[in-house]
Design brief:
It contains 6 helices and 3 strands; from the N terminus they run H-H-H-H-H-H-E-E-E. It is mostly helical. It has a 3-stranded antiparallel β-sheet, with no helix packed on it.
Length: 181
């Protein structure tokens, strides 16, 4: 893995945050993005980040810079958790109003498991837009991938390593969100 250019990262952050007028706001943006990196367990040194981690970090800064409303620290501290998330551009649902019965929780888990185990033939590879095989019902081993791109040519599929087709496991974070798995 190659090292990231820290000077490039600093220049990119500076360019992305040029429109921020208040130093306090800039400090909050950078602090929040750094906290995100810590929460996601990125390496301590930005030079050791992968390109994907760097892109996620830049996307977080971009979202924070594009926040529609600037708050003072006192105003921000008084916001509810839902409003803080909304201010950071993160959509969430407040579920604290009602308690669920154990039967309801178990029922939802069972329903989610049934949905998760349903065979899917509508998945497309994000690298080459070809069909993706759903192997969950025919896996011979737990180490086998849950999903595999149907393209076996590295020229066509950018996710192909040259030796292996692009594959995904349910417990990995790189499963495309649009699959809703």
């Amino acid at each position: 893995m190659s090292k990231q250019d820290v000077e490039f990262i600093a220049k990119t952050i500076h360019t992305m945050t040029e429109s921020v007028e208040h130093p306090e706001t800039l400090q909050k943006i950078i602090g929040t993005a750094n906290e995100y990196a810590r929460t996601m367990k990125f390496p301590k040194s930005k030079a050791d980040w992968s390109d994907e981690q760097l892109n996620k970090y830049f996307a977080m800064i971009e979202r924070l810079v594009d926040m529609p409303t600037e708050y003072t620290q006192e105003q921000f501290d008084e916001l509810s958790l839902q409003d803080k998330l909304k201010a950071a551009g993160i959509e969430s649902t407040d579920i604290t109003d009602g308690l669920q019965t154990p039967d309801g929780i178990v029922g939802e888990v069972v329903k989610d498991m049934e949905q998760q185990n349903k065979y899917r033939d509508d998945l497309k590879c994000p690298y080459c837009n070809q069909m993706v095989y759903d192997n969950r019902n025919s896996k011979k081993s737990d180490k086998s991938p849950d999903f595999t791109c149907s393209t076996n040519d590295p020229v066509i599929c950018g996710g192909h390593t040259g030796k292996w087709r692009k594959s995904w496991w349910l417990d990995n974070s790189d499963i495309p969100k649009e699959w809703n798995v």
